[in-house]
From TrEMBL:
Residues 97-225 form the Fido domain. Gene3D superfamilies: Fido-like domain. PROSITE patterns: FIDO. This is Fido domain-containing protein. InterPro entries: Fido, Fido-like_dom_sf.
Length: 248
């Protein structure tokens, strides 16, 4: 029997309860009554807020209402919007061909930011290539840990590797959301995890650095942060749903 390489993460102090709490928060948010008839509106707003947050985490901070009005031309923000809009259509392919999907995400994220020759091409580093292969194997069924844990690992590893030039963080955050969508944990992509990362940005940066150390404490720090960000993302469903119901 092959040992699950990610299973030990659940034995780290406080991680399993944090995963359970985040899952419960998402389950509760998914029952919001606005999703019965206005789920499309909620999903569209989540997509917008996620893109704005992801661009901000790349240092491109923009007012959400200006983005909504279409007046922001910043290429990183535009790339984040393209990526957010593409996630539902990429979810079926993600577990079958993760390397292909990552390349596609980079093309969407980095257009007008890097050269045409760099789009969709990982950096030429054998260590990065090997670790991308290992990550792809996990996504393609190489682990049975809960989707939240796999998403956190995918996100943390891609942030650490920065396998693509330009806004690689946008790709990392999108890949993590794809894990949640493709596994059926968040099939409509309603959990705005990136908003949680943005709201807790100092913790996000520190925990990502801790993850990169590979130590048990570093991994625990990142996993705890990720679950907190998921809870914030779940709360966004409630906030957005309440706003839509109040306006209808």
């Amino acid at each position: 029997m092959t040992t699950d390489p990610l299973a030990p993460l659940l034995a780290l102090a406080d991680v399993a309860p944090a995963v359970e709490q985040a899952r419960d928060r998402v389950d509760q948010a998914h029952r919001h009554r606005a999703l019965r008839r206005q789920g499309g509106q909620v999903a569209a707003e989540v997509s917008l807020r996620s893109a704005v947050a992801s661009a901000a985490l790349e240092g491109r901070v923009h007012d959400r209402e200006e983005v909504r009005a279409g007046t922001v031309t910043d290429p990183v923000l535009q790339g984040a919007l393209r990526v957010a809009g593409a996630l539902p259509g990429l979810s079926d392919l993600w577990s079958k061909a993760p390397r292909q999907v990552l390349a596609r995400l980079h093309v969407l994220a980095a257009r007008d930011v890097v050269t045409e020759e760099e789009l969709g091409r990982p950096v030429a580093d054998p260590v990065v290539a090997a670790r991308l292969d290992s990550l792809a194997a996990l996504v393609a069924g190489g682990t049975k840990v809960p989707p939240l844990v796999l998403a956190a690992v995918v996100h943390g590893e891609l942030l650490n590797l920065r396998p693509f030039p330009g806004p690689s963080g946008v790709v990392a955050r999108a890949a993590a959301r794809l894990v949640l969508i493709s596994t059926g944990f968040d099939p409509r992509g309603l959990v705005a995890v990136d908003v949680g990362h943005r709201e807790r940005e100092p913790e996000y940066v520190g925990a990502a650095g801790a993850f990169a150390t590979g130590t048990p404490d570093g991994l625990r720090s990142w996993l705890r942060h990720y679950m907190s960000a998921v809870e914030v993302g779940a709360d966004q469903i409630t906030l957005i749903g309440d706003e839509i119901l109040a306006a209808s």
